[in-house]
Amino acid sequence: MVTKKLIIVMGIAGSGKSTIGKAFSEKLGTPFLDADDFHPQENIKKMTRGIPLTDDDRWPWLGAIVEYVLQAHRNEFVLACSALKQSYRDYLGQRLDNKYLFLELSQEEAEDRLSQRKDHFMPRGLVSSQLETLEPPVDAFSLRATLSPHEIVRQAQAYFADFI
Fold it and tell me: pTM for the whole thing?
C-alpha cells in the first residue's frame, strides 16, 4: 500500500493557512487542498451565522478529507486545515502520514485580518472559540503567522525537505 503524505498548514482562522499552503504547494510542486472545500453546507451555514462547530460537526468533515486523499492518484499534498485539537490530528494521522506547519497568531491579529476579508464565511467573532478549542501541537514546526509569506515558505521548505 502506498503511503499518502500531507504537510498540513494549521492554525486558527486568519492565520494565513490558505495563502501559505498555496504558496508552499507551488514551491514544492505538490497539489494544494483547502480543508474549507470539504465542509458540508450545514457547517458553513453555522459558521456564517457565528455558531462555533462542535466535534460532531467536524468528524464528517475530517473523514471527507481523509477519503479524498486516499482515493486521489497523487501521494503527496499540502493541506490548509485548522486541525485545532490533537484528536483531530490523530484522526487525520490514522491512515495518512502527516507533518504540521503551525502558524501562530494572537486573537487580536486574527480578528484584524478577518475584519479585512470580504470573501470568507468565517466571521471574526469565532476567533475566540477557535482559540478556546486550540490544543497547540507539540510535534509541529511552528512559525509566527506575521512573518512574510515568502519567509514562512522558505523556512518551511528547509524544514520539510526530507519529508516531501
Answer: 0.91
Cα separation of 159 and 84, whole Å? Answer: 21
- Alpha-carbon gap, residue 105 to 103, rounded angstroms: 7
Q: Are strands 97-104 and 32-34 parallel, antiparallel or unpaired?
A: unpaired
Rounded CA separation 130/52 (Å): 8
pLDDT in tens, 92-127: 999 999 999 999 999 999 988 887 766 655 556 678
DSSP at 73: S
Across residues 76-93, what is the average pLDDT?
A: 97
Place of cell 499540502: 78
DSSP H helices, the chain, are: 17-28, 41-48, 55-71, 86-92, 107-115, 127-133, 149-159
**CA-to-CA dists, residue 105 to 3, 72, 108, 144, 153, angstroms:** 32, 32, 8, 6, 16
Backbone angles phi, psi at 55, to 5 degrees: -55, -40
φ/ψ (deg, to 5) at 135: -115, 100
Domains, the chain, in order of start with CATH, read 5-109+132-159 (3.40.50.300)
